[in-house]
Fold:
Amino acid sequence: MSHPHPELPEPPPLPEGALRVVALGGLGEIGRNMTVLEYAGRLLVVDCGVLFPEESQPGIDLILPDFTSIEDRLDDIEAIVLTHGHEDHIGALPYLLRLRRDIPLLGSRLTLALVEAKLREARIKPVVTVVREGERNRVGPFDLEFLAVNHSIPDALAVAIRTPAGLVLHTGDFKMDQLPLDGRLTDLNGFARLGDEGVDLLLVDSTNAEVPGFVPSEAEITPVLNAVFARSRGRIIVASFASHIHRIQQVIDAAAAHGRRVAFVGRSMVRNMGVARDLGYLTVPGGTLVSLDDLTHLPDDEVVLICTGSQGEPMAVLSRIANNDHAIKAGADDTIILASSLIPGNENAVNRVINGLTRSGATVVHRGNALVHVSGHASAGELLYVYNVVRPRNVMPVHGEWRHLRANAALAERTGVPRDRIVLAEDGVVVDLVDGVARIVGAVPVGYVYVDGASVGDISEASLTDRRVLGEEGFISIFAAVDIINGKVVAGPEIEARGFHEDPDVLTPVRDDVRRELESAMADGVVDARQLQQRVRRIVGRWVAQTHRRRPMIIPVVVEA
Structure:
């Protein structure tokens, strides 16, 4: 389980006229955002995203929300509301829709276009309803109102959810850029109007709650990009989130201004930018966009490559370039721009990419040395504005690690929200809104659901532990054949090691110890092969720990001759 709560009981039946809120992902972590609301036996889902694995999860492709608590209630789901088109909010949809394909999806035009492109690859044709800011839609007992918010992707929405139990406002991911590139401001007037109506529960983005002040405007990046383009003499390679259309637009505009041509690299980048261009969210001057093949025939000072890999993902284009494992090779005259914020947990991976590119001689420009990216999440000053205009009766921080949730809770308290009306919850914690008061009433089982290739949910924490040990400490196997009757080792012990030590003879000294341990055990009357194997594992493990301070995986095999 990702967040076990043995101290919390199984939640009681939902009282009549009450609203239940359960996060199946996204609390205590940055990713796999999914919130389930229940009223009168019907369910509404807000977002359904993925979490990307960390280094401690080798071989894992994606991590999904845990659908276990709603698997037997799929027919009760009225709809899934999608706040925006980032993977941590839409990436798990193919896995949930495999369980029930006709769940209606509500989202903005761009969000649903990205979702449909993704689901097409999974051979799922979704039931969709396009919504716009300012609209109201009713699904079952849930009266939904959508509000515009500014984020690092166009067409992001907040959603107000009205039921007889009260008014819930879910901000989704947002910031308050006062000079947005698309002119689409976060609807603070709408937030204030809802505040006047009375917001009973505010679910608010916590990602940057620890960051003081305000997020810089996206517009401030344009002159920085132009300056980088002006001084670059070779190719320019830009890595960005495949959905960050605003940043891609700025790069394309800079390329056109400096007489460069642009090619997209990476499947998700090509797919998403194609969708954005078709819908009019991305404007490309004539002759600027070319294929990768065409780009190879141009001089380096006329080339811009826009690719994936800004978070150090192992298989993304930029990571492969850094590892010299891609057709594109970084050179001394190249300029690499990482246009993204670091996702917590990805620091080491991104630094490895930066070091690999720098080693090749390329100039690497990133957020640490130039304003080439700003966050898409509200900082503390912006969150204070929201609390003051909404004046919520109850607050539940969402979308953040524990430190972000606590920092957000502190901001709410500073604006006058009573401490006992601030709910700090984690994945699986059940929150009921009863008579205008939000309280934790229990928890449902929620674990990490791993996607490993074609396998979904078959990988356990024990399997991951084995992978980590194998990767970090290596593997030792011991084979021996014994004569139980005479109490003698008649073959072996043969000891093999992989990934443990470069010297193949390093384990020779322990062979005699294994032989003596086996013969001593048989002399004591131990004749069970499993017990003999345990003796071998202990003696080898103790010797390796004392001699080499290592803890490899040890696999003993003892057979009766």
About this structure: The radius of gyration is 28 Å. The chain has a mean pLDDT of 87. The chain has three domains: 19-213+375-451, 218-365, 461-560. DSSP finds 15 helices and 25 strands in the chain.
